[in-house]
Amino acid sequence: IECNPRCHSAICTLEGHQNLSAIFTDPDFDPDLDPIVTSRAHVFRYWIMDQIFLMLGFWEPKNCFKLSFRQVLRGGDAILCGDDPMPFLAMYLLQITSLLLLELFEGTPWLKIDFCIGKIVKEGGD
Question: What average pLDDT does this structure show over 11-24?
Answer without folding.
Answer: 76
